[in-house]
């Protein structure tokens, strides 16, 4: 993990601290009444802890991605075998398309796909085709200043969208009740709604208060070591 890809200038992750933070994350998921499956480590893939990028899981199918970073392609191949135990319908994004599922935000039966350094137009079109095959819809959004779409926004159910200032004027989001994440707390734009709880990174008091004020139970988690690798709360699990 400490050799993972990063654009952040926050130093090398502390492995022991990261393990403790990961265990706390698992406990939080269990507190939200999820059953957690923990996979064996993939030592040859230092970014594999960010498992969300390897597949998009929907009620109807699993779609194996083709990660934009070539060093991560093997992770997706492993996940196909893992997910075959849970899904009958499995689709696969192929070259020249690339997709990181961290670029995909689900709102009910619609999926917003960020076009980024990791997700290209071809990959997005393949993803849209698969989603439409199973009766869902999708649209694309160009992003520029963050790694993934979900680095800049989160859906908190009940028509509530948590949005960083970068995407505040995106026309596709104007139908939602928007909570603005100011630049100084931009990392907290990646939150995670699960069964009425919202997981929030620790030390972002303004956005934490806003989420509490609308009635959600908040679980604050320290993910400082994963932030050093551009990772956030949603990146660390596949949820279905």
Protein architecture, described:
With 240 residues, the chain is an alpha/beta fold. It has helices spanning 15-31, 73-83, 121-133, 205-213, 224-227; strands at 55-57, 62-64, 90-92, 104-107, 110-115, 137-142, 153-155, 160-164, 177-181, 192-194, 197-201, 217-221. The chain has a single domain (15-236), classed as L-arginine/glycine Amidinotransferase, Chain A (5-stranded Propeller), CATH 3.75.10.10. Helix 4 links the parallel strand 11 and strand 12 (217-221). It is globular. The model has no long low-confidence stretch (mean pLDDT 96).
Question: Which features characterize this protein?
Answer:
240 residues, L-arginine/glycine Amidinotransferase, Chain A, alpha/beta, 5 helices
| Oligomeric state of shown chains | single chain
Cα gyration radius (Å):
17 Å
Shape: globular
Q: Estimate nothing, just give the exact number of structural domains.
A: 1
Largest sheet: 3 strands, mixed
pLDDT average, as an integer?
96
Order of helices and strands: HEEHEEEHEEEEEEHEH
Roughly how many Å apart are the termini?
A: 25 Å
CATH fold group = L-arginine/glycine Amidinotransferase, Chain A
User: CATH first level: which class?
Assistant: Alpha Beta
Number of helix segments? 5
CATH architectural type: 5-stranded Propeller
Beta percentage is 15-25%
